[in-house]
Amino acid sequence: MMKRNRNYGKLTIIISLIFTITSCTDIMDPDISSKDLSLLAPTDSLETNLSTHTFWWTEVEFAEEYNLQIASPTFMQAERLIMDTVLLTNKFIYGLTPGKYEWRVQARNTRSSTDYQTNSLKIDPSLDISEELLQLLKPGDNDTTNLNVLEFKWIKLYNADEYILNLFHNSIPVKERTTDKDTIIIPLSWGDGSYQWKLKAKNKITETLNFERSFFIDTEAPEKPVLKIPNDKSTTINKTINFNWDRKSNPLSSEKDSLVVYVDSPSTPSVAVELKKTEYTITLEEGTYKWYVKTFDKAGNLSNQSEIRTITIENN
Prior knowledge:
This protein is mainly β. The chain folds into three domains: 39-123, Immunoglobulins (Immunoglobulin-like, Sandwich), CATH 2.60.40; 136-217, Immunoglobulin-like (Sandwich); 226-313, Immunoglobulin-like, CATH 2.60.40.10. It has one helix and 24 strands. It has one helix at residues 2-28; strands at residues 39-41, 46-48, 52-57, 65-72, 80-87, 91-95, 99-108, 117-123, 136-138, 143-145, 149-154, 162-169, 172-179, 183-187, 193-202, 211-217, 226-229, 234-236, 240-246, 255-262, 271-275, 279-283, 287-297, 309-313. The strands form six sheets. It has a five-stranded mixed sheet with strand order 2-8-7-4-5, with no helix packed on it. A five-stranded mixed sheet has the order 10-16-15-12-13, with no helix packed on it. It is flat, with a radius of gyration of 30 Å. The termini are far apart.
């Protein structure tokens, strides 16, 4: 009798655990299968001569991602699956060639998903590209790099014959290039600073507006950081140590510091952290430690290493 009771108790605990785990999953990932998702643009049954569109839909609460699919001419009679991609946002820009399409979106989380919502779209051929959108791919907007040769890349437009790229350094025009490709590689011989590139597409009768992005070139290494505290060869019984140093900031590039604290070798550090602030507090065990700091910037430039200091933590 006691054995049956003991087994019954174990079974009760297991059922309780399963219920608890299931309940936690419900809290973390609510069921979204009955939630509404609406397609906003392009509107259903749209007929247009524009080839580039922003596919846009309503956000669904508790959704973690969206599955966007595009097929031609329809999903039921698909000759081509143009796109099947997972997105974290509710907008996606994409260019299509003339033809008939259907596009659909489904919201998902780890537990459930909504029904697909579907719209149709027809794109007619046209030589008028004046209202088309150019998708600039790289360099990314407001990127910072230390490279002196960059690849400029975009998505080609249907019915565009050529592309004209204008490059500016610190607002001064420095380069113009024309191509029928979707890529131009340009050596940047004008030094560090702010750059802007503008691109437009043309054909025999029309042209697009200029589409533009900015980026920064920074090839200068940050200055070597200067250590402040603890003082070199200092001794303390306090195991909580505040490391503090100075760095000269660069207004054109964000900077961080790498603090390394070690006993025998920097390759096996006791502490190795990257910091935006010029201080760091940590509790250490008794012993003698060495420490130094390096600074690196957004472009990937690295400063010279600071001096190496030692600190000894003694038994109280």
